[in-house]
Each structure stands twice: as C-alpha cells, then as structure tokens.
Specification:
Elements lengths: L18 H4 L7 H8 L14 H8 L10 H19 L7 H15 L17 E5 L5 H9 L5 E4 L5 E4 L1 E5 L6 H16 L3 H5 L6 H14 L4 E5 L11 H15 L3 E6 L3 H6 L13 E3 L6 H11 L12 H11 L3 H22 L7 H11 L4 H9 L2 H10 L2 H16 L19 H13 L4 H14 L5 H13 L24 H8 L5 H7 L13
Parallel strand pairs: 1-6, 1-7, 4-5, 5-6
Antiparallel strand pairs: 2-3
C-alpha cells in the first residue's frame, strides 16, 4: 500500500480499523478523479499528412475518447461514499460481519430471505439510481469508475477470504429474479474461481432458495456494491417488475449490500412506484443524466473534442458549427462524437477521389446527420421538441446506442469496399438481410408485447413470402399480418372413406384364423401344403 493510500488514515474514525475499507484505494480530489478517468486519443499534428487510408484508421481512436465532466465526477464521488458506508456495518474485526453470516445461515435453513434472525446488526447500506437518456454514457462512465477499484481483494487476517468490492450485472430481459441469481452465481464463479452455479443455480431450485443463497454469498465475500444495468428491461417482465425490485430492496435493507440501478428514462416510473419503498433507497439521492443543455459544459466538451482532426486542413470552430452540432445531436454526447468521426471520414474519402479540400462545414454536418442518422431522427426530433412521451417510446423500441453502433459498423464496411461507382461519396448504411434481420425483427415484435409463439408464426410466414427482404420490409409485412383481421378458413370437404382392398383368395391369415381353435398355425399351414420341408442330402 502506498503512502497516498495511508493519507486519510486517522481522519475518519468510522473508516479506521476496518480491513474491508483500508484495502481500498485512497480518496481522491476532483482533479485527481478527472485525470484518472479521462481517456484522450493519441494525436500528432504530423498525422494530418498521413495517406488517406491511414488517417481513416486514426479516426477510430475517437471511439475510445472519454472526457469526464461534472456529472462523471459526481458519480465517482457518490460511488466511493456508497462503497465505504456499506462496509461500516460489516467490519470483520467486530462481531458485525460474523452476525451477518450467521443470520444468512438461518435464512437458508428457513428458505426465506425475510425470515426472522437471532442477531440484530447495524445496516449502513445506501443506494441510488442513475437514470438518463440513452447515449449519455451512463454504462461507460460507471465502468470507468469501477476499473479504478480492484474487484477482488484477498485477506489473510483476521481470516482468509476473498473480498469482492463490486459486481455489475445486466438486468434479465424478462425481469426474472431467478435469472438474475443464475447470472450472479456465474459471475462470482468467473471472478473468484468458485463453483456456486453448479450447487445453487440448478434449474429445479426455487426462486426463494436461490435468493437466500445469493444473499449469503454476497455477505460471505463482503460484496461492496451490486450494480444492475439496463433496469428498464423490467418493462418486459412476464409476471411483475415488483418481484425483482422487492428482492433488491431486501438486499439493501436486510442484508446490507448497497445497490446502484442504471437505466434509461423509461425506468423512471418503475423506480418511483416500487424502489422508493426501500428505507435507504434514496440515501444518496438519484442522478438524472438528461441530454446536455447548451452552456459552459457543452462548449467545453466541444472545444476538447474539436482539436482531434485528422483532415489535412484544420477547421476552426465557429458559432455556426457549434449550433449545428447541438441541433443535430441535441446534447447527446455519443451522437456528437460519432457525427464528428463520420464527417471527417467522408471528407477524407471524397478527397481521396477528387483531391478536394478537407474542410468541415455546416452543410457537411447536416448531410452526414440526415443520411447516417436517419433511424434516430424521430428521437432527435422528440428531444428538440421536448416530447416526453415520444422519447419513452423510442427509448424502449430502439435504443440509441445500438443504432449508433450499427451506423459506425456500416460506415467502416463501406470504407473497405474496393470499388467506388460514383464521384459523389455516400456513407449510407447497407440494407440488413438474412439471419441478423430476422433476429432484429423478432426482438422488435417481442418488445411490442407480441407473444413468442405468434412472433415465430409471423416471421415464418414473412420469410416464406419474402425470403430476401430487408429488415424494414419484413417489419412492415409483420405489422400488416398482426393488424389484419383473421380470415375464417373454409371447412374442408369430407373425404370419401377409403375402401379396404379385397384380400386374395389364398390368404395365410384366413387359413390360420379358421384352424386356430383346432390346431397350431404350423399344422394349419402344413395341411394346406404351404410348408415346404427342407431338402437334406444324405452322405454315405
């Protein structure tokens, strides 16, 4: 442990003497957090003179670009508080940690997470939710913060154990608590090398049984924080979203494990209706990451991003360009970064053919946005008009991040084509067909609430009628089938009974049946001369 890690020793008595806290990295100032979280791409001015095909690869460095802003710093600080506060009530040098384990064993015997226990323990766990528009970097931000903290810490004293500081899971698509437990066991096994999934994740095990074992394992390995991402999937829960949320509330209130829930804006109603009942669910409040408004934060982000230009001519930022960037992205960070990448890629590709100047203009930015981001245009329009209902609908049906990734993949594929048939460059995404299109149609229909068996019938019929159709045509035909009135099927005409074929005159079955009561079948067949004796040659 470095001297920096000891720098806070003695400042906070509630943290001193707790091995679960003392082995964590030292607390950091805001400036130190910024330096730890930022990810700046490699950039040199001389790279502007690289060949066209090389500079296109340089542009991909921006896909890993991360500029921490005030909201990321706030999230990092709250995470640090949440992690340490949860460990105060589970100090292994006192009886608190042992009492938590003994209570867990009693719950396992009762097979009930809410069963009364012998020991009363102090609960210092708190939780909060991170909700916001898709594409604002919620998942990536929390992952950057988590990577600053070692996930596994081995202790030899006061007893040997592996401390698990954090665990991040995705919410099961159908909101199943049982599937969440299975994912939990599998993740613990992968990190710690244990075998919990084999023992406790059997399909025949009940949900209650899995829950009590999951809670006990969380305490056994001193789980610091459990992060559940994509919590909006609870909208698709087959039974009710309350089952999983109540379980998470129990982890906070009964077991003492802090929880962070991350989701898009559509998860707001779920958390307001259910998770608010947790005693400590709002201990640190909740963070709402809407799209960035125009202002100092947005201007700072654009200024930092704009310096990474691999065009042969650097284009200075102007108020007109700022306005277009905001209007076409509506303050969504990931959209503006991808727009900046695609605009440069288009300029470099056109220059490679025409040898034209590589200058970023407002007209170019508008053209790239209209062609490459046409699928998310309704969501951008909803943000522009502040249409909350439309935002929730688009957020559920077509996650913004998913489409942006598709646009980038399509643009890269088009850059690798050996032939260019026109002097006018176009980066429009290729039409999706085949298995990928079928999978996406299946997912879209499921998100709309169509039953799985009906989805398969509809897809089979659409594929039979349009075997080479693209995803948009398949979706259109599927919607037509679902919205059309069922037609009554004509009753089939009764078929004429099939007359039995007449038996031959000499039928072995008749011969045996007639003689069955008087002699054996062999004797009856022999009497009718139908049994041929074997020919045996006698030798001297």
């Amino acid at each position: 442990m470095t001297s920096k890690e000891h720098s806070t020793k003695g400042m906070l008595p509630e943290y001193d003497g707790n091995p679960f806290i003392s082995r964590l990295p030292a607390l950091q100032t805001q400036m130190e957090l910024i330096q730890a979280l930022e990810a700046r791409p490699i950039f040199h001015e001389k790279e502007r003179q690289h060949p066209h095909y090389v500079r296109k690869h340089c542009l991909l460095r921006l896909t890993r670009y991360f500029e921490p802003m005030q909201r990321q710093i706030q999230l990092a600080e709250r995470f640090g508080m949440l992690l340490r506060q949860g460990y105060i009530g589970r100090n292994p040098l006192t009886h608190d940690y042992i009492h938590h384990l003994q209570n867990g064993l009693e719950r396992i015997e009762a097979n009930d997470l809410m069963a009364s226990t012998l020991y009363a323990v102090e609960n210092t766990a708190m939780s909060f939710a991170l909700i916001g528009c898709s594409g604002m970097g919620k998942s990536r931000s929390i992952e950057k913060i988590l990577h600053q903290i070692p996930q596994k810490i081995h202790h030899d004293e006061p007893f040997s154990l592996n401390q698990l500081t954090w665990l991040k899971l995705d919410c099961p698509f159908h909101g199943s608590p049982k599937q969440l437990c299975i994912n939990f066991f599998a993740s613990i096994d992968r990190i710690l090398g244990t075998n919990y999934l084999k023992h406790y994740g059997k399909t025949r095990s009940s949900i209650d049984e899995m829950m009590v074992h999951m809670a006990h394992i969380a305490n056994l390995h001193a789980l610091g924080v459990l992060i559940i991402d994509e919590i909006q999937h609870l909208h698709h829960a087959k039974l009710s979203s309350e089952a999983l949320l109540n379980f998470l509330v129990t982890l906070v209130n009964t077991i003492g494990v802090p929880i962070i829930l991350i989701g898009t804006s559509s998860a707001t109603s779920l958390l307001q209706d259910n998770f608010r009942h947790a005693r400590r669910a709002n201990g640190l409040g909740s963070l709402n990451w809407d799209n960035l408004p125009k202002g100092k934060t947005w201007d700072h982000f654009i200024d930092q991003l704009w310096q990474y230009q691999w065009t042969n001519t650097a284009t200075p930022i102007s108020p007109e360009i700022r306005d277009v960037l905001y209007d076409e992205s509506q303050g969504i960070v990931d959209v503006v970064v991808k727009l900046f990448i695609l605009a440069q890629m288009r300029l470099i590709s056109i220059s490679e053919i025409r040898e034209s100047p590589e200058v970023i203009t407002t007209q170019l930015l508008r053209k790239v946005a209209s062609e490459d981001f046409s699928m998310i245009a309704p969501m951008i329009k909803a943000l522009r008009e502040n249409d909350t209902k439309a935002l929730l609908k688009y957020d559920d049906l077509k996650p913004l991040q998913q489409h942006i990734d598709q646009v980038m993949a399509a643009a890269l594929q088009s850059e690798q084509k050996p032939e260019i048939t026109s002097t006018t460059h176009s980066d429009t995404a290729p039409v999706e067909t085949g298995d990928d299109a079928i999978s996406k149609v299946r997912l879209s229909l499921s998100n709309l609430g169509v039953a799985e068996d009906i989805v398969e019938v509809v897809i089979k019929r659409v594929v039979n009628e349009h075997p080479s159709a693209d995803i948009l045509l398949m979706l259109s035909e599927a919607v037509k089938l679902l919205s059309s009135k069922p037609t009554t099927k004509a009753k089939p005409k009764p078929s004429k009974p099939i007359e039995a074929e007449p038996r031959p005159i000499l039928d072995l079955r008749d011969i045996v049946a007639k003689k069955a009561g008087e002699q054996t079948a062999y004797d009856a067949l022999s009497a009718a001369n139908l049994v041929k004796l074997p020919h045996i040659e006698l030798t001297a």
